[in-house]
Amino acid sequence: MKVTTSRFGVLDVAENDIIKFEDGLLGFEAMKRFFIVDPADDTLILWMQSLDSPEVAFPVLEPKIFKSDYKVHLSGNELRCLKIENTKNKDTLVYCILTIPDDVSKMTANLKAPIVVNTASQTGRQVVLQENEYSVKYSMYKELLTVIMSSAGNARVSAEPSNSIAMPLSLRGTISKVEVFAL
User: Fold this and answer.
1) What would the DSSP string read from start to end of 95-140?
2) Which of these, 97, 124, 154, 157, is most buried using a 10 Å CB contact count?
3) What's the whole-model pTM score?
4) What is the pLDDT of residues 129-163, one digit of tens each?
5) Are 127 and 119 in contact (CB under 8 A)?
6) How many alpha carbons lie under 13 Å from residue 99 in its C-beta half-sphere?
7) Which secondary-structure segment (H or E) carries 95?
8) Torsion of CA 58, 62, 68, 69, to 10 degrees
9) CA dihedral in degrees (123, 127, 129, 130; nearest 10)?
10) What is the pLDDT of residues 106-123, one digit of tens each?
11) What are phi and psi of 65, to 5 degrees?
12) Closest to 60 (Cα-Cα) out of 109, 116, 18
């Protein structure tokens, strides 16, 4: 299907790339359908684009990229809502929503309420973790910049300009680095 977005223009989105959030997101409960967009830049940041509201897209990132010890513990109810029968399966992705102010060096990640996606059923849920160690505004710019610089240093540099354009990501077969446990 063709989807018009305010940030990325018109994108061709496959039905099986749509993530359904039965309860919506915190503060955005009316928005139930999203898909992940790769903006085709070097930031590693993806965007969770709403199908229900073309002007709404959240910057997201897998937290293991900048916080290597990050883990998610889900309650029995959260596992049922996400249709996760076994936390050892590799069908679960975890993203955190970023806040990117004008001064990007002040960028933060919400580690307290990650987005969890079951890629087998294409269901998602924003969960509020019970652990007190995680913050809603985790400052992570320096860690992300280090990872980006390291990737750029290892990548082959091309003299040709990039013609990359933003496109929806298929999450099927994507393996998360974040460990998910049952409470």
Assistant:
1) EEEEE--SSGGG-EE--SS-EEEETTTTEEEE---S-TT--SSEE-
2) 124
3) 0.86
4) 988 889 999 999 999 998 888 876 655 444 444 45
5) no
6) 12
7) strand 92-99
8) 80
9) -110
10) 999 999 999 999 999 999
11) -60, -35
12) 109
